[in-house]
Amino acid sequence: MSKFGELISADIPILLDFYAEWNDQSKFMHAVLRDVAAAVGDSAKVIKIDVDKNRELAEALRVKGLPTLMIYKNGEMVWRQSGEQDANTLIGLISEHY
């Protein structure tokens, strides 16, 4: 969990994608997130977190639906949504927190 604290304390927006390989919506989001990462470049980070490998973190953050997307900046959650999102929406949300 201390690594998670370091991860989200960055002064750039961090988009977290909580996913599972067996979840179809999560698989759909892989390509969307690749596009988002390419669009935001170094001004933000996109990080995928497999809930099956990080159960403790997923439970601590009360991740229920997949995928669950969160944006953190300076250690604070500034946005959260479960379900699919399109690339333009995510890019817009990230750019609000540069």
As laid out across the biggest beta sheet, the strand order is: 2-1-3-4
Query: Approximately what portion of the residues adopt beta-strand conformation?
Result: 25-35%
Would you tell me the overall average pLDDT? Answer: 95
Question: What is the ordering of alpha helices and beta strands?
Answer: HEHEHEEH
Round the Cα radius of gyration to an integer and report it.
12 Å
Helix content: 25-40%
Give the low-pLDDT segments.
Answer: none
Blueprint of the fold:
Elements: H1 2-8, E1 14-19, H2 24-40, E2 45-50, H3 55-60, E3 68-73, E4 76-82, H4 87-95
Parallel strand pairs: 1-2
Antiparallel strand pairs: 1-3, 3-4
Helix pairs in contact: 2-4
Main features:
98 residues, alpha+beta, Glutaredoxin, 4 strands, 40% helix, globular
Describe this structure in words.
With 98 residues, this protein is α+β, with helices and mostly antiparallel strands. The protein has 4 helices and 4 strands; from the N terminus they run H-E-H-E-H-E-E-H. The chain has a single domain (2-95), classed as 3-Layer(aba) Sandwich (Glutaredoxin). A hairpin with a 2-residue loop joins strand 3 and strand 4.
Write a concise synopsis of the structure shown.
Helix content is 40%, strand content 26%. The protein has 98 residues and is of the alpha+beta class. It is globular and about 30 Å long.
